[in-house]
Amino acid sequence: MTSPTKIQQIQAKKLFIILFIISLFLSHLGLVGIEDSSIMPNYFIALIVSFIVAKKAGLNLFKLVTIGLIVDLFTGQLIGQYGLIFMVIYILDFSVNKILVIKYQKQIESLSIFLILFSFVVLWLTSQSYNVFITPKILLLQSIFTFIAYLFFKALINKFISR
Amino acid sequence: MAQKPNRSNLKLFNRDTFPISTFLILFFLCLVLMGSDFRYQILKQIRLEIPIIIAPINNLINLPVNLFRESKDTFVTKKLLKEKITRMEEAIYLLSIKVQENQLLKSENNILRNILKIQKNFNISGTTAEIILPEVRNGHSIITINKGSKNNIQAGSAVINNKGLVGQVVNTSDSYSEIRPITSESYAVPAIMENAKQNVILYGNGNGELVIPLFPGSNSIKINDIFVTSGVDTLYPKGIRIGRVTEIMPTKSPKFNHILVKPFSQPTTFSFITVLKIKND
User: Fold this and answer.
1) Is position B226 within any domain?
2) In terms of CA atoms, which chain A residue is nearest residue B134?
3) B223 lies in some domain
4) Which of B30, B59, B135 is the best mutation test for A, with the most CBs of A within 10 A?
5) How far is B69 from chain A (nearest CA, A)?
């Protein structure tokens, strides 16, 4: 794993802003054929996981909390909820990379799935809903859709940020 | 000549120091913010005071539909308009007959109410609005309508359509309002069975249905029984249709049943709803 260059960081920041705006609109739109809104992909989690795992946009805890607050302002339930989730994603990725060598694509995808699932658990624990336990079916379906969104973002990162 | 790649900045492990103090401070800050928001509804207030946060998104996602409608209006032919007028005239005629029938029933009802000395007023008045996008916000179902505080819509008002109860207004801005559908998880409405005296509370289950978690097994209930608002909360007028019983399941306790109710109103985007006025008395 190599550190991103300055050009890569600038490209990544621009791409991040564009994808953030796209996610903002997508999070307000339903998907054709999916009636149950609770299984809709969480585009923001997918976006943050893809950028944190790719380590291109130079995201740190302060930036993530700020982004989380912006997400909360537009689409959140509580101020601070997404800041907390993004921080947890960052810390988990940081810790895993401290303990393990994440080198191959399969390892990166496994780490992403783990981060997505864990962020959903945090989202569910901090949810305002009175329904305390999320059903495994909903968690699985939402995670699958979010992982697909993550793959989409990852493909864009690989396409538009020079190696 | 092939060059060897520069591997001076190659990192196998993350060697940065763990930002534990920053993490703990920000973690605590987020928890404080969440707690304060939960208690003082800060986010709701911000969205109410600064409509510019939501308005551009709402305008942009509704733009294609609005453009389509405007262009359709521009290119509509005289023949089509004539056909539409004829259809509407027929509809008005049929409705006027129904109004006469209703007026007769209303006058009979008034006479009976006077005899029985029932004072309850059933007048339902409100503002008609159209459902627009967005219908979902980050995984949560919402109903957005094209009228807001400018049109005297207040948070907390009940919302109905021609099929029955739709939900309750939870947020209002100048031009938009958000409605929590009756099937959302945090929704509850006092109800009564049509032609019965059994008062219950129906809860949304988040999956497009309403439930009664513990319905006494000693009370009779069957599939297709209809629930209407009981009016005991004074928020919803009495008698608005809510839904039909679709499933009766036994619970762990033999004394209770779990009832599933399918709502009558399935409001779709770009259909009309009525926001009822809150009575202050």
Assistant:
1) yes
2) A28
3) yes
4) B30
5) 19
Assess B13–A contact: CB distance below 8 Å, yes or no: yes
**Distance (Å) from the alpha carbon of A139 to chain B's nearest alpha carbon:** 12
Q: What are residue B255's phi and psi, to 5 degrees?
A: -80, -15
Answer whether residue B69 is part of any domain: no
Answer whether residue A132 shows pLDDT above 70.
no
Chain B contact present for A98, CB below 8 A: yes
Answer whether A42 sits within 8 Å of B139, measured CB to CB: yes
Nearest to B137 among A28, A60, A101 (CB): A28
In a domain? residue A120: yes
Whether B274 contacts B159, CB under 8 Å: yes
Q: Residue B247's domain is classified under what CATH number?
A: 2.40.10.350
Using CB atoms, which residue from B14, B23, B31 is nearest to A98? B14
Give the ipTM of the model, two decimals please. 0.88
Q: Judge whether B254 lies within some domain.
A: yes
Amino acid letter, residue B144: T
- Quote the domain boundaries for residue B216: 188-263
Domain that holds residue A122: 6-160
Tell me the CA distances in angstroms from B277 to A118, B167, B168, B190, B281, one per residue in order: 44, 14, 11, 18, 12
Q: Does B277 have pLDDT greater than 80? A: yes
Option in A36, A91, A126 nearest B23 (CB): A91
Number of structural domains chain B divides into: 1
pLDDT digits (tens, 9 = 90+) for B75-133: 877 888 889 999 999 999 999 999 999 989 988 888 888 888 776 665 677 888 988 88
Please write the tens of the pLDDT for every residue from A100-127: 888 888 999 999 999 999 999 888 888 8
When divided into structural domains, chain A yields a total of: 1
Start-end of H helices in B41-175: 42-49, 55-75, 78-116
Regarding pTM above 0.90, the answer is no
Closest CA to B249 of B201, B215, B202, B206: B215
pLDDT single digits (tens) B167-200: 999 888 888 888 988 888 778 899 998 876 788 9
| B84 residue type, one letter | K
Does any CB of chain B come closer than 8 Å to the CB of residue A37?
A: yes
- CA angle (A146 as vertex; B46, B204 as ends), nearest 5: 60
Mean pLDDT of chain B: 84
Chain B residue with minimal CA distance to A43? B138
Asked if B133 has any chain A CB less than 8 Å from its own CB, the reply is yes
The answer to whether residue A1 is domain-embedded is no
Does the residue A47 lie in any domain? yes
Q: Does A117 map to a domain?
A: yes
